[in-house]
Amino acid sequence: MSDKATLTEKLVEAPADYEELKSAIAGRYASLSRQLQSIARFALENPNDIALETVATIAKRAGVQPSSMVRFAQTMGYDGFTTMQQVFRSRLMAGAVSYRDRIRSMAKDRGEGPESLLDDFVDEGMASLQALRDSIDRPTIAAAADRLVAAEEVFLLAQRRAFPVAFYLAYALGRLEKRYRLLDGTGGLMHQQAAQARPSDTILAISFTPYSQDVIDIARERSEAGVPIVGITDSPLSPLAMAASVSFEVPDQGDQPFRSLVAPLCLAQTLMVTVGQKMAERENNRGDSP
Question: Which domains does the chain have, with CATH numbers?
Fold first, then answer.
């Protein structure tokens, strides 16, 4: 490591908690080397492993050398890997994932036949809702709702398994009598449809791993054109999160073959109720004006 690199790393203030660290990783991700980007993704997708395993074990799982793990920690402003690991351990001790662990422990006694599927899906849904409650920043909900209320028109953008969330949002916005447009890509014209969004509008985009390339490309293009993007995705390192001015990261179920939409739909409902409340407040304020 060069003296210049060491000096640069010491000038970076180490994040005090996991939320600060997560934001720091997302903010600096694009400037990291490919190897450090790989570690960043692994750290945010597997925080429990970072908290509990040795640096050698973590490095092996991440496909890097232990020295790279130390370098990553120093790049984030810590003296070494152990200091950064304490941040992940503090998160674990706070109980952010204990509910999921309890659910999985209960499921071990079940059989593997079709009769256990309902229990498995219900448990995963409950765990995903708890993870949503623990991870979503409440002020972000208000900020996103303000953006949607202020928009002349809301463009809804999603594909594949995320599309049901966009369809629900279209239904809810219609009930609220808020102008919206569902970008369904009929006839292969999704990009042309999205190109009609202006800076006075807002695009609400939803995409989860593996991300829809059309959704990501449109979000980037419209963001560069000055159109505000509200994103619902699964990681602060998601290309959608990086294109959005306001972003929600709904934790994924990781090792599950089917992604539950319980948490994204719950978030969508919360967002729409908040939008409705803010629209009502705006109307009331207009009525009170002389």
Answer: 3-93 (1.10.10.10), 138-288 (3.40.50.10490)
Contact yes or no for 157/244 (Cβ under 8 A): no
Q: How far apart are CA 242 and CA 235, in angstroms?
A: 10
pLDDT range class, residue 168, cuts 50, 70, 90: very high
* Alpha-carbon gap, residue 267 to 244, rounded angstroms: 17
pLDDT of residue 161: 87
Return the closest-CA partner of residue 215 out of 235, 199, 193: 193
How many C-beta atoms lie closer than 10 Å to residue 170's C-beta? 18
For 136, the token pair is 């979503």
Q: Could you report the per-residue pLDDT of 183-217, keeping only the tens digit for each?
A: 988 888 889 999 999 999 999 999 988 888 899 99
Q: Please give the model's pTM, rounded to 2 decimal places.
A: 0.70
Which residue's structure tokens are 């967002």?
A: 271
